[in-house]
Amino acid sequence: MKRYLLLLTAVIAALAVVLPATAGAATFRGAVVAKDAARKALVTAGTDGTVRTVRLHGKFNRFRVGSTVAVRGALLPDGTYSGAAVRRLGKARGTHVRGSVVRQLGKQLVISAGGSVFALRLAGKRGAAEGGGLQPGDRVDCDVHFKGGSPTTRSGDVDKVGHDGQLVLEGIYLDTTADGSLEVAVVHRGRVLVAVPDDVTVPDFTAGDEIALVVTVEDDSSFTLVKAENENDPGDGEGGDGDDDGGKVDIGKEQFSVPGVLSAIGADGLSVKVQGRVEPVRCTFKAGSVDLSGYEVGQWVYVTCKYGEGRFVLVSIKHKDAPPAPGDGPLSAVGTIASLDSDQVSVDTGAEDPVSCLVPDGMDLLGFTQGDSVKMYCVENDDGDYVIKALISDHASYTPDGSWFTVQGSILEVNNLRVSVHVEGRDSPVTCAVAPGADLSAFHVADAVTMKCKLIGDGFKVKLLQSATAHYELNG
């Protein structure tokens, strides 16, 4: 990994700091166009098309896509918002979205806006053909309505307003290739490679980290890194919350961490210069309450702050090069599944012993089988055991963003409740539930099909079913 190369003048050391009493306070309304389970965040769009990402740490499931919310919070250093108070106002008939295209494939338009990546469904039989001219990096202006809880736009309501060639990708870091490119699993996009120029610094990512990347889009639609941030840096606190009958959620302990250079120290606060930001991040503290002995202006640090009462308050500070706690950190393995059951997955990496991790509560391994080539990422729990955080193959994925898998075979059973497919090499058929109202009358027993299932609620449901003569796809 490249090291951060940041230079500060020594004159800063002699300056006193006077910190403001308020920080980035904001109030706004918007319709929820997406939810990000990994970040516990709502993605909202205002009537003017402005998209904002609002971080929650409580009552996340109370908010639904298609609802209107009022938000009071603060702008965080990464451009997202801390939701100090979020209230449901009702259902939204529609809204407006301005953003940059990540990809357009068939009837799905993936947008980057407000620090998030989310999908809009392109409605109408002509949607795929008319939307085919959109390229990654195009700026678009979309009218959006909610159909069956899914944000939907018609191809005629998508206006291309420019091309700036830069957007935000957020997802899970997988690996760094031999040429230094970052391999990232991006929601709605799959695996992508991001080239890293020689003059761009990269944090010390670990497999499984949730990261945000600012990238440029090249003429061949490939991505080149501009800036990278690690969303798993220390300090992502849960925060308290409260709820009343009106659906109000108060989050009083929103925390964030930023790496940077300590640019100023005062009696009641400090400033950190973060790469890529013009203004330093400033955090206050009570005079005499923080021991800053050993810290000097110009040092590289991690600072954790929380938002409360109109200001960012210092929670902790540590040197960037401080060693991790013994046994702390994630575990990764690349190889083939040697064995799996409801308790544990073991991956043969070619070493003498396979790498084994526990299966977390609620994880369904239906999409995986012995012999699959996978990448597995695990994190240590409070008992010192490693638990799966992500398990990814070329046909299945289990991540904090959701789970899905694809199989090919012949139909053994098909009705309005379930579809069962015989897959060569599997001892048992693969069965997924069918969403209410799905019309599968064009499919029959013995048809050769491709079936994609997605984890929705407490089980896998058929997302896509396709044969040589029939096609079904679940919206949303």
Tell me the helix content: under 10%
How far the N terminus sits from the C terminus, by CA atoms, comes to: 39 Å
Unreliable runs: 1-23, 126-131, 234-253, 322-328
Indicate the proportion of strand residues: over 45%
**Which structural class best describes the helix and strand composition?**
mainly beta
**How would a crystallographer describe the biggest sheet?**
12 strands, antiparallel
Instruction: Count every beta strand, where a strand is a DSSP E run of 2 or more residues.
Output: 35
- Counting DSSP H or I runs of 4 or more residues, the number of helices is 1
Round the Cα radius of gyration to an integer and report it: 24 Å
Shape: globular
Summarize model confidence as the mean pLDDT.
78
Protein traits:
476 residues; mainly beta; 12-stranded antiparallel sheet; 5-stranded mixed beta barrel; 35 strands; 1% helix; 53% strand; globular
Structure at a glance:
With 476 residues, the protein is mainly β.
